[in-house]
Amino acid sequence: MFCYQCEQTAKGQGCTKIGVCGKQPDTAALQDLLIFAQKGLAQVALAGREKGVADPGTGRFMAEAMFSTLTNVNFDPERIARLVQETVKKRDELKAKVTQAGGQIPNSTAVSFEPGKNLDEMVAQGEEHGILAEKDPDPDIHSLKQTLILGIKGISAYADHAAILGQEEDAVYQFIERALASAMRNDLGLEKWIELVLECGRVNVRTMELLDTANTGTYGHPVPTGVPLGAKKGKAVLVSGHDLKDLEILLKQTEGRGINIYTHGEMLPCHGYPELKKYPHFYGHYGTAWQNQLKEFPKFPGAILMTTNCIQKPQEVYKDNIFTTGLVGWPGVTHITDKDFTPVIEKALAMEGFTQDEDKGEVMVGFGRNAVLSVADKVIEAVKAGKIRHFFLVAGCDGAKPGRNYYTEFVEKVPQDCVVLTLACGKFRFFDKNLGNIGGIPRLLDVGQCNDAYSAVKIAMALADAFECGVNDLPLSMILSWYEQKAVAILLSLLALGIRDIRLGPSLPAFLSENVLNYLVENYNIKPISTPDDDLKAILG
Ligand code: SF4
Ligand code: SF3
Predict the structure, then answer these.
(1) What's CA 470's distance to the chain center, in Å?
(2) How many domains is the chain partitioned into structurally?
(3) How many CB atoms lie within 10 A of CB 30?
(4) Which of 37, 147, 467, 520 is deepest in the core (most CB within 10 A)?
């Protein structure tokens, strides 16, 4: 196997024997085969578009398949293999329609390959289609091509979340097809690849906008809300991942059943949505970021539902209490396909639950673009009066590496006259710190999930408008942490929007070649994090 798509990749170069995330070589090979199959489907879909032939479900299906290969989503080889078969079936059905319409089917191995008859044969096929097997004219094109595929995984995740709530746009699917089909080409020059990678960032902005519309249109704009970190006596279900709809369904199905619902990880910001917080049994938040689940889940006295990334290998002690739904999967863990969460509810009722109330204080969530911009006048006044010197967006993924303590320390050292905006699971490094406020404006503002990055972009743009300057001229610095491929897509979006001076850590992506990295440094002044003291000094002078 060879996989270098996430930040924890082995030796900062690539996982070759087994994934640091727990991905087995067979699953890695099947994911490679799935991406290869997706490229074939993309080529046929594009040929179809030229003849006005389109299968309305293809784009959504491709987004689901690509999302399934994102880090910590689906570790189940059987399900990945089924996705390969489904891809080929869709490809062949579409091929027949395109041929009938007089279209030209591209002559490509991805268009003609047939999946092996069993799992072993498919694994062997996947081994021939890994990243290292790709013959690219030069290492920089190879790097940009892989960056594009990883960006597409991020877009696919956002597109899938948006589609679940009814927001879809064909242009997004069309780009996924075009990008994946391009990855089969060896005739494109460096400039074209840079163009495609930046286009990926632009399309991701639109996709995140669709998701923002989906979330706020369905559940209302988040409002500042205190979320208890303790426990309430009684039966309990813990919901992890990122999916708001799954949470809503579970809240409805547990109404009046004497079960309290807790969020874990990236589900924390759900407490701010009016249409979710209205459920009285939607109680509080348990635990911190994804990489701590092995310590935290064994102590949770109820059922656990994983709706998306990030799942880790469940320990025996809670393997019977954990459930997956949607695209997430782990072999041997009960997967709920039809959104009937009865098995989760029954498990929660059979378990002990919390035996007493526990007060562990609370944290504030709900500072999405609507809430922040509703006090924009106050914020602008505070900046003009010199009460707020600088804003820091300390955002992105968490992970297990010790280098990630940088983000905790950074926030602790941010001077009293500065405000910290945050989003995504990296916030768990400092989410429960009381940073106080500046004239009533909290110094720590939780904008939401990684899925809410669009909200932070809108806040930055609105501030730039108010100060009649560009985002790069604002007293705002972005200190980002990345781990998986949604973060890659977000980073590409920020670059596509022309944002400069981003500090990125804890390490730089292994898939960026030296020249590509240099290009980013020269054109966007992107830099690796150093130490909190040095970075703060460099930013604030
Ligand atoms: Fe390694 Fe990350 Fe790939 Fe898992 S997702 S195999 S940890 S690079
Ligand atoms: Fe976190 Fe997985 Fe990326 Fe959603 S939950 S930000 S890592």
Answers:
(1) 27
(2) 3
(3) 29
(4) 37
- DSSP characters over 99-139: HHTTPPPP--HHHH----SSHHHHHHHHHTTSGGG---SSH
Q: Give the number of the ligand closest to the Cα of residue 509.
A: 1
Q: By the 8 A CB rule, do 420 and 396 touch?
A: no
> 3-state class of 339 per DSSP?
coil
Using an 8 Å Cβ cutoff, are 481 and 395 in contact? Answer: yes
CB 213 within 8 A of CB 167: yes
Ligand nearest to the CA of 510: 1
Nearest residue by C-alpha to atom 6 in ligand 1? 19
Sequence-ordered strand ranges (E) for 366-505 = 390-396, 418-423, 437-438, 441-442, 444-448, 476-481, 503-505
1, 4, 15, 18, best to mutate for ligand 1 pocket (most atoms within 8 Å of CB): 15
CATH of the domain at 532: 3.40.50.2030
**Mean of the per-residue pLDDT values of the chain:** 97
pTM above 0.70, yes or no: yes
CB 250 within 8 A of CB 239: yes
Name the DSSP class of 14: -
Other CB atoms within 10 Å distance of the CB of residue 434? 11
**Residues of the chain where predicted confidence (pLDDT) is lower than 70:** none
CB under 8 Å to 274, separation ≥6 — which residues? 219, 220, 221, 223
Residue among 73, 75, 239, 486 to mutate when testing ligand 2 (max atoms within 8 A of CB): 486
Specify whether 213 is located in the same domain as 229: no
- Residues 214, 232 within the same domain: no
Q: In whole angstroms, what is the distance from residue 141 CA to residue 29 CA?
A: 23
**402: containing domain:** 367-540
Torsion of CA 62, 137, 14, 241, to 10 degrees: -20
Query: What are residue 364's DSSP bridge partners?
Result: 226
Phi-psi region of 216 (alpha: psi -120 to 50; beta: other; left: phi over 0): alpha
Q: Which ligand has its closest atom nearest to the C-alpha of 489? A: 2
> Is residue 437 domain-shared with residue 414, that is, in the same domain?
yes
Verify that 171 and 266 share a domain, yes or no: no
Of the candidates 503, 422, 420, 498, the residue with the CA atom closest to the CA atom of residue 464: 498
pLDDT, tens digit, 9 for 90 and up, residues 138-159: 999 999 999 999 999 999 999 9
- Rounded-to-integer distance, Cα 447 and Cα 420, Å: 10
| Alpha carbon distance 181, 43 (integer Å) | 5
Does 452 contact ligand 2 (Cβ within 6 A)?
no
- pLDDT tens-digit readout, 249-279: 999 999 999 999 999 999 999 999 999 999 9
> How many residues appear in the chain?
541
